[in-house]
Amino acid sequence: MIGLISATAAGAAARDRLAAAWPDRTRVYDGPVKDAVRSAFAECEQLVCFLATGAVVRLIAPLLGAKATDPGVVCVDEGGRFAVSLVGGHGGGANELARAVGESLAAQPVVTTATDAVGLPGLDTLGFPVEGAVAAVSRALLDGEPVALRAESAWPLPPLPLTEEGAHVVRVTDRAVEPAGNEVLLRPPSLVVGVGASRGAPADEVLGLVEDALRDAGLSPRSVAELATVDAKAEEPGIVTAAARLGVPLVTYSAGELAGIRVPNPSDAPRTAVGTPSVAEAAALARGGELLVPKRKSRRPDGRPAMATCAVVRRPARGRLAVVGLGPGARDLLTPRARAELRRAAVLVGLDQYVDQIRDLLRPGTRILESGLGAEEERARTAVAEARAGHAVALIGSGDAGVYAMASPALAEASDDVDVIGVPGVTAALAAGAILGAPLGHDHVSISLSDLHTPWEVIERRVRAAAEADIVVTFYNPRSRGRDWQLPKALAILAGHREPTTPVGVVRNASRPDESSRLTTLGELDPAWVDMMTVVTVGNTATRNIAGRMVTPRGYRWQESAQEEGR
Question: At 211, is the secondary structure helix, strand, or coil?
Fold first, then answer.
């Protein structure tokens, strides 16, 4: 929850705007400001104070405790010009909050955290639990001193200037070790704990068993990624509560899936109870990995039979592949999620002209693998190979990466040994549609006229089906120097089912500085207007030119009502 505090009428107005924008995330604190700040500081994860920074500093100073537990505090000035990340920039999320507040209130976010100022990712913002000398190692990175990376497994990290040797160390480990004075420990999500339990097993018994198993094996509980069990135990209170206390998800598998996994210690008891000879070991091994702790049973102080079992597996390190849609070209149509993935990537793979569009958004040290037109499959293979090597990779494409772009060849190449994240983008059809008006208001289809990968017979069959079904059609890759006959052929097919007066929109370089568009008709369209940077949208029988805008009604019933009103 985000606490909102103000002192003046102007501050209250900005406060109320933010409260209205984020109704489920915010709570307004009224009354004397000092009391409001004290209450919000104790009750909320973050605060936005619509006060002078000096006043906020004096108010929160007596309340500050520890960097890891204090809420993030953002200060917005009286004029609503700036959103200042005051304390808890990383740990409290104040930096991101300042950016979000700035976007909501049209204020300039002010972030002074040293790593953010120079483009370095903060060691406490990498997505891993962190321990040790974060400030000292961060300072060494900022000062250009050598900082060594000691990774026991290749979990993906964003670009960091790490070396093989150095007085300061970033260590990636799931072992229960204490950090040295010059060391930061990053805890990767490498451990899976399989658990089984009798009906009614106490949560303390399940949790105690897990903690004992990890401690005896010298493993850190902060590297536990999930608890795993059989479907029949998905709602067993002791297991559910143990997962909640560990702060990890509970993953379940069917008895049939677990029965097919070879384990060292099968048993007849779980076979009889839930239909599989192993729960704890099989669930832990369900996605592969190294069995570090074979099945062990809980110990009850009163000597009664154990009610819980567990096993621990170290799963292989998994690389990360983000398939990112950059949108049609305009920077303000690049989504915040896409920006975040570009900043997170240690390796960027993409078409050279697309790389040029976003090169300034990358962190220093990002490794860029770019190539020219026609190398889509090579880029897909390269991106997947880099992810399999344990890197954080961003594979970029224009528009939406899943629409005539890089997601399809990449996912055809990738197996389940890497984590894949899809980041949607604004497609060319949507960008063009917004320029033309509302041509996609009813059913619509996108068809590529490029026969480089698809036989023309297949493309023609699809165009004919769209024509017969009276569906609005957007043509991608409509015409190039070497392919100048496909568009006239496709238009002729549509003309066999639609009037010559059917509206057609032609948009070139949608959202880019040299954008151009025209609204014409099926009978008047000149294919010479069209090239590979153009999309062509052909309306259906209901599409109309209304005040110079291409509009397809949302439904035929609506069209009939509009016609009746016009009589």
Answer: helix
Name which of 298, 324, 295 is nearest 311 in CA terms: 295
DSSP per-residue letters across 151-208: ESS--------EESS-SEEEEE--B--PPPTTEEEE--S-EEEEEEE-TT--HHHHHH
Mean pLDDT across the stretch 481-501? 93
Out of 292, 314, 336, pick the residue that ends a domain: 314
At residue 558, the pLDDT reads 52
The verdict on 37 and 151 lying in the same domain is no
Residue 556 lies in a domain: no
Q: What is the DSSP letter of 527?
A: G
| DSSP at 526 | -
pLDDT in tens, 94-150: 988 999 999 889 999 998 887 777 778 888 888 889 999 988 998 999 888 999 999
Alpha helices in 469-517 (DSSP H): 486-495
The DSSP bridge pattern shows strands 392-397 and 347-351 to be parallel
Confirm if 531 and 540 have CB atoms less than 8 A apart. Answer: no
Q: Domain containing 48: what range?
A: 2-112
CATH number of the domain residue 7 falls in: 3.40.50.11220
How confident is the model at residue 45, as a pLDDT? Answer: 92
Q: Is the same domain home to 264 and 215?
A: yes
pLDDT of residue 559: 53
140-174 burial, b at 16+ Cβ within 10 Å, e below that, comes to bbeeeeebbbebeebbbbbbbebeeebebbbbbbb
The pLDDT, as a whole number, for residue 91 is 80
Tokens of 68: 């890891």
**Contact 268/287 with Cβ under 8 angstroms?**
no
- pLDDT, tens digit, for every residue of 288-307? 999 999 999 998 777 778 88
pLDDT of residue 127: 81
For residue 360, what is the DSSP state? G
Residue 436 pLDDT greater than 90, yes or no: yes
Residue 560, helix vs strand vs coil: helix
pLDDT tens-digit readout, 313-328: 999 888 999 999 999 9
Q: Is residue 294 part of a domain?
A: yes
CATH of the domain at 351: 3.40.1010.10
Number of domains in the chain: 5
Q: Round the CA-based radius of gyration of the chain to a whole number and report it.
A: 29
Residue 414 contacts residue 422 (beta carbons within 8 Å):
no
In a domain, 530, yes or no: yes
pLDDT score of 565: 47
CA distance 437 to 435: 6
Separation in Å, CA 333 to CA 39, 87, 322, 324, 425 = 39, 31, 18, 13, 8
Residue 445 within a domain = yes
User: CB-based contacts of 186: which residues, under 8 Å, 6+ apart?
Assistant: 123, 126, 128, 129, 130, 155, 157, 170, 171, 172, 173
Per-position b or e across 51-63, b if 16+ CB within 10 A of its CB: bebeebeebbeee
Cα 258 to chain centroid distance, Å, stands at 30
DSSP codes of every residue in 417-474: TEEEEEE----HHHHHHHHHEETTSS-EEEEE---SSS-HHHHHHHHHHHHHTT-EEE
